[in-house]
Amino acid sequence: TGNFPNGCHICEVEIDPDTGVVTLTRYTVVDDVGRVLNPLLLEGQIHGGVAQGVGQAIYETIQIDPGSGQLVSGSLMDYCLPRADNLPMFAIKSHEVLTQNTPFGTKGAGEAGTVGSIAAVMNAVSNALMKVGAPEVNMPATSEKVWEALNKRKQA
Prior knowledge:
Structural class: alpha+beta
Distance between the termini: 54 Å
Number of strands: 3
């Protein structure tokens, strides 16, 4: 019998209307991974997963030259990853609901940060754009895509 971790991720963003830059201002996570055996290790695992999800949601994109098919984002000089100054402090809490299916009541936590963060960040960006009448953007919500969406709103 399987067991299923649960969680809730809440992300708040601000968007600069002149540049399209998305800034995460607040991020909160409450996860149920069953019994927490090592709180510090769990928090680090969730923190890293959230950073990975933020990268996928608003930074990371593979660029290919349309004329030659050449990969132009083939190094970390050209491939944007989130840095520490792109992320706020995360509020991370645990809500332990033990499972009967493992000896210690534990559940999986390996991808807890990644899975919730992608949806939380993209929903925050979509909500911010919707509030000003701009169309949605697809992942990754790069500043270029967000800026274009904001300018489409201005023309409409």
